[in-house]
C-alpha cells in the first residue's frame, strides 16, 4: 500500500464502469430512470475518492446533474470518474456518462457531474489526505476549475446553514 502522505496522480485513482441497461432500470418509455444513473455516478465517484485517499469517504455535495440525452433499454452505459481536485479532507470527482448502442457502436455523452467527498478517520471525523498531482494539460485544467468549483460548493453549503 502507498504511504498515505505520498501524493498520487489522478490517473492512479481513476475508475471506469460499464452497465447493461435492463428492464428494472427503466421507465414505461424504456428510458433509464435518472435515479439509477445518479446511483451509478455516486458509486463510481466514491470509489475514486476511496482509491485516492485509502480512507472511507462520504458524499457531501453533488453539483448540478443534467441529463442531455435519453439512455435506452439495451444500451451499454460507460461511467468514467476521476479526481479533479483535493482540499484538506475533501475531494472533487468529475464523472462523465456515455451511452453506447452495442449494435451500431454509436456512443453519446449523456451526463457530466461533479461530486464532493470527505475522507473520514476511524471515529468518523474529517481527516487530512494526500495531495493529487495533475499531469496532463486536461488534468491541470480540471484541477484549476475544480478549485473554483469547490469554493462555489462550499459557499452554497454555507448559505444553507
Ligand atoms: C462529512 C462530515 C463528517 C464533515 O463534517 P464537518 O463537521 O462538516 O467537517 P468540516 O466542516 O470540517 O468539513 C470537512 C471538509 O468538507 C468540506 N465540505 C463540507 N461540506 C461540503 C460541501 N457541501 N461541499 C463541498 N465541500 C464540503 C469542507 O470545506 C472541508 O474541506 P477541507 O477539509 O478540504 O478543507 C459531515 O458533514 C457529515 O457526516 N455529513 C454527512 C455525509 C453523508 O452521510 N453523506 C451520505 C449521503 S446522505
Describe the structure.
- With 161 residues, the protein is of the alpha+beta class.
- The protein has a single domain (8-160), classed as Hotdog Thioesterase (Thiol Ester Dehydrase, Chain A), CATH 3.10.129.10.
- It is 30% helix and 35% strand.
- It has helices at 10-13, 34-53, 137-160, and strands at residues 8-9, 15-20, 57-67, 76-86, 90-100, 107-119, 132-133.
- The protein has a five-stranded antiparallel sheet. A two-stranded parallel ribbon has the order 1-7.
- Strand 5 (90-100) and strand 6 form a beta hairpin.
- The longest helix has 24 residues, at 137-160.
- It is globular and about 45 Å long.
- The structure holds coenzyme A.
- Residues 58-61, 87-90, 116, 118, 126, 153-154, 157 line the site of coenzyme A.
Distance between the termini: 38 Å
CATH architecture: Roll
Which range best describes the helical content: under 10%, 10-25%, 25-40%, 40-55%, 55-70% or over 70%?
A: 25-40%
Tell me the β content: 25-35%
Number of strands: 7
Shape: globular
Mean pLDDT reading: 94
Compute the CA-based radius of gyration.
17 Å
CATH topology: Thiol Ester Dehydrase, Chain A
Number of helical regions: 3
CATH class: Alpha Beta
Question: What small molecules does the structure contain?
Answer: coenzyme A
> What is the helix/strand order?
EHEHEEEEEH
Helix/strand-derived class? alpha+beta
Strand count, sense and barrel status of the largest sheet are:
5 strands, antiparallel
User: What ranges have pLDDT less than 50 throughout 5 or more consecutive residues?
Assistant: none
- Total of domains: 1
Strands across the major sheet, in which order?
2-4-5-6-3
CATH 4th-level superfamily? Hotdog Thioesterase
Amino acid at each position: 500500500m502507498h504511504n498515505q502522505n505520498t501524493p498520487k496522480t489522478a490517473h492512479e485513482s481513476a475508475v471506469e464502469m460499464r452497465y447493461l441497461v435492463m428492464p428494472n432500470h427503466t421507465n414505461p418509455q424504456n428510458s433509464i430512470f435518472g435515479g439509477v444513473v445518479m446511483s451509478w455516478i455516486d458509486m463510481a465517484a466514491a470509489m475514486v475518492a476511496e482509491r485516492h485517499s485509502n480512507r472511507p469517504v462520504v458524499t457531501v455535495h453533488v453539483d448540478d446533474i443534467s441529463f442531455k440525452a435519453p439512455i435506452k433499454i439495451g444500451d451499454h452505459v460507460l461511467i468514467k470518474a476521476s479526481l479533479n481536485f483535493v482540499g484538506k479532507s475533501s475531494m472533487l470527482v468529475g464523472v462523465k456518462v456515455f451511452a453506447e448502442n452495442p449494435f451500431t457502436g454509436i456512443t453519446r455523452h449523456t451526463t457530466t457531474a461533479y461530486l464532493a467527498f470527505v475522507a473520514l478517520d476511524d471515529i468518523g471525523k474529517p481527516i487530512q489526505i494526500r495531495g493529487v498531482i495533475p499531469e496532463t494539460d486536461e488534468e491541470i485544467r480540471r484541477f484549476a476549475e475544480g478549485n473554483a468549483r469547490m469554493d462555489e460548493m462550499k459557499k452554497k453549503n454555507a448559505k444553507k446553514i
